[in-house]
């Protein structure tokens, strides 16, 4: 953080620490009668976002609160005159300051009674000296954040009120304009409407009438003003006495808002059918009625015509209905048949979908036209490593599918039955499988049903079983013949030592060479015996890390001798039941192989860790890696790539792992190889 220039402004006992940037700053009040404590708080809380205000007494703090608004108050408890509890009580008594968070900072008693008193006067936190600066800083940041959010909400509320007031004014202006428009439109509508509109009072006297009355009734509007509205009607629906002037007015209350059929009476005594609709309002407390009269002569004529047409249509419908009933019976039979077919197809489709999704084989549907994936099942996704979206509507890569016998790429234009192939996963793993294909139609595009049975695991298991069979055979041989071989070798060794002491016998160099070769043969037999299936292990509950740490100086010396590095990365692991000598031999064999595979400057790492109820030992080198041909033969007795190797080192490692019920996994590549031995915990 860049240094910030501070200006100190003193106002009596109140000190304000202002940063260089004053916009949008948050005020924080610090109250303590000890200046050095205030300086310490300033050092902790110094920030370009804060205005730090210092007060050396409770009275000074109250004066600061009258002048400024604060986000949080840091208040010392033990002060002369007005102590922290009394100051807090006065702050809480003022309406404007009662919601400001107060944090007590004190070095006096931490008794619960003392703390409870602080909370009772309004404190929200209690910090004891010496305090953690980072903790205090984080707490202040949280209170400042709450204060800023509160201020934002207040600002939003004020803005919202202003916006609502402007919106109300706009609505008032719009209402005035709408009223003016309504008056103008009412006048235009009254003059242009073809319906007659009559207004009358509670006594039935006409108050006004629009100009359409002249065309419809033959009256001038002025002739009707003051006349009873009943004079305009010969008959109203429901008038059994044919005395419309009396009945009309009596029907008003029951017919308000409804359309009433009537017979209107013109000035020349002619009449016509009409629909009337009456509405009610009030002006100065007096009821006013509005009656709309519409000439429906044309509609009545049309209704007569439609009635005749309806009768004709009704007869036609009866005839047609009979035909449709017969056709419907035939259609129902056909629908039932189609439903049976649909249900059968649905069941078949569901059956195929379940088989498709639950099949352990890799199944895909591929377009024969453009060779794109239309669908793949779950097994395909799980084994190849591709997601569903990565495959659908993408072209199949024929380079990933190779015919095993001749190594050629596949051609999917013909039927294939159980062809052995190799195929590549998303992560580059080469797996083996049996491929079968079939041409099918899918709505109605011709497609290829691609069914691949993966048998990679079976091949690996067969290889492992073969290796174990060879290992067991050699172990049984070792137990049976090692003793018989050692006896004559011991006799030969004894006679050679006698001959060596006889000056007239063989030359000393020849005897030494023969003894050295016998010793080498004896060491090979000793290693050979370690392969014995019935070899007894002396297992004890031990810490694997302790065994490795005891062995590490020897490993480090061997690494330094060849200008290489060996490092440990040991983690806490549960104890396991192991034979220490055999585990030491397993580690040394793998470590020496790893050191031999690296050039000068390479690093070998020995790592231990616990994972899923197992203890893992990893030995990782930075060599050139192991080829696939050699990887298949690793662990086979007497197989070696070293010029003077016996080929028993890794075979012994596998034999030791088998006696300890452990698994050995190998990961190899251009960056080196990693041997992982997984032990079951005790």
TrEMBL record:
Residue stretches spanning the membrane: none
Residues modified to 4-aspartylphosphate: 76
Protein's name in the database: histidine kinase
Domain Histidine kinase: 480-682
EC number: 2.7.13.3
Gene designation per UniProt: rcsC_5
Lineage: Bacteria, Bacillati, Bacillota, Bacilli, Bacillales
InterPro entries: CheY-like_superfamily, HATPase_C_sf, HATPase_dom, His_kinase_dom, HisK_dim/P_dom, HisK_dim/P_sf, PAS, PAS-like_dom_sf
Sorted UniProt keywords: ATP-binding, Coiled coil, Kinase, Nucleotide-binding, Phosphoprotein, Transferase, Two-component regulatory system
Catalytic activity: ATP + protein L-histidine = ADP + protein N-phospho-L-histidine
Species for this entry: Neobacillus rhizosphaerae
Keyword presence, Kinase: yes
Domain of life: Bacteria
Signal peptide (UniProt feature, chain positions): none
GO molecular function, one term: protein histidine kinase activity
Annotated coiled-coil segments of the chain: 140-185
Entry-linked SMART domains: HATPase_c, HisKA, PAS, REC
Domain Response regulatory: 27-144
PAS domain segment(s): 181-227, 348-406
């Amino acid at each position: 953080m860049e240094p910030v220039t501070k200006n100190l402004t003193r106002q009596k006992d109140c000190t304000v620490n202002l940063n260089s940037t004053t916009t949008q700053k948050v005020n924080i009040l610090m109250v303590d009668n000890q200046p050095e404590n205030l300086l310490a708080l300033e050092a902790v809380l110094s920030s370009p976002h804060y205005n730090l205000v210092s007060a050396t007494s409770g009275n000074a703090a109250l004066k600061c609160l009258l002048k400024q608004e604060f986000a949080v108050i840091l208040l010392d408890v033990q002060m002369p005159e007005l102590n922290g509890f009394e100051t807090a009580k006065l702050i809480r008594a003022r309406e404007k300051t009662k919601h400001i968070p107060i944090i007590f900072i004190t070095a006096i008693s931490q008794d619960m009674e003392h703390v409870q008193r602080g909370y009772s006067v309004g404190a929200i936190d209690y910090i004891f000296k010496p305090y953690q600066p980072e903790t205090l800083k984080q707490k202040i940041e949280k209170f400042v954040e709450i204060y800023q959010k509160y201020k934002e909400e207040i600002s939003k509320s004020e803005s919202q009120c202003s916006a609502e007031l402007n919106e109300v004014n706009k609505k008032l202006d719009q209402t005035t304009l709408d009223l003016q428009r309504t008056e103008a439109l009412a006048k235009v509508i009254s003059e242009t409407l073809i319906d007659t509109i009559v207004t009358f009072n509670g006594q039935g006297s006409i108050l006004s009438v629009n100009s359409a009355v002249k065309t419809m009734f033959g009256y001038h509007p002025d002739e009707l003003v003051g006349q009873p509205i009943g004079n305009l009607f010969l008959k109203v629906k429901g008038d059994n006495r044919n005395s419309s002037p009396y009945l009309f007015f009596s029907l008003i209350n029951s017919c308000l808002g409804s359309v009433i059929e009537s017979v209107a009476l013109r000035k020349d005594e002619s009449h016509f059918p009409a629909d009337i609709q009456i509405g009610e309002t009030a002006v100065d407390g007096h009821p006013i009625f509005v009656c709309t009269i519409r000439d429906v002569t044309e509609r009545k004529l049309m209704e007569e015509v439609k009635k005749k047409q309806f009768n004709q249509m009704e007869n036609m419908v009866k005839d047609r209905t009979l035909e449709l009933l017969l056709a419907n019976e035939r259609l129902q039979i056909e629908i039932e048949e189609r439903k049976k077919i649909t249900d059968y197809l649905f069941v078949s489709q569901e059956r195929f979908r379940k088989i498709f999704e639950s099949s352990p084989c890799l199944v895909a549907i591929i377009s024969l036209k453009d060779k794109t994936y239309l669908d793949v099942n779950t097994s395909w996704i799980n084994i190849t490593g591709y997601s569903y979206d990565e495959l659908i509507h993408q072209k199949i890569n024929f380079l990933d599918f190779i015919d095993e016998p001749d190594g050629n790429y596949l051609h999917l234009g013909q039927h294939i039955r159980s062809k052995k192939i190799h195929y590549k996963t998303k992560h580059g793993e080469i797996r083996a499988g049996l491929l079968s294909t079939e041409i099918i139609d899918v709505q109605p595009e011709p497609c290829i049903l691609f069914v691949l049975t993966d048998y990679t695991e079976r091949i690996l298991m067969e290889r492992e079983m073969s290796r174990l069979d060879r290992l067991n055979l050699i172990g049984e041989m070792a137990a049976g013949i090692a003793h018989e071989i050692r006896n004559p070798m011991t006799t030969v060794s004894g006679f050679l030592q006698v001959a060596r002491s006889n000056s007239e016998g063989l030359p000393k160099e020849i005897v030494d060479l023969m003894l050295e070769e016998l010793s080498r043969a004896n060491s090979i037999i000793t290693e050979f015996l370690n392969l014995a299936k019935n070899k007894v292990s002396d297992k004890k509950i031990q810490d694997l890390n302790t065994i490795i740490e005891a062995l590490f100086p020897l490993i480090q010396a061997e690494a330094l001798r060849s200008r290489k590095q060996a490092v440990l990365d040991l983690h806490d692991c549960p104890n396991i039941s192991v034979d220490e000598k055999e585990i030491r031999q397993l580690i040394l064999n793998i470590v020496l192989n790893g050191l031999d595979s690296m050039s000068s400057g390479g690093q070998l790492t020995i790592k231990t860790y616990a994972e899923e109820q197992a203890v893992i030992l990893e030995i990782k080198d930075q060599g050139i890696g192991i080829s696939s041909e050699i990887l298949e033969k690793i662990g086979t007795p007497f197989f070696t790539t070293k010029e003077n190797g016996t080929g028993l080192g890794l075979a012994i490692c596998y034999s030791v792992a088998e006696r300890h019920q452990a698994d050995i996994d190998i990961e190899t590549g251009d960056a080196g190889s990693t041997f992982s031995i997984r032990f079951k915990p005790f």
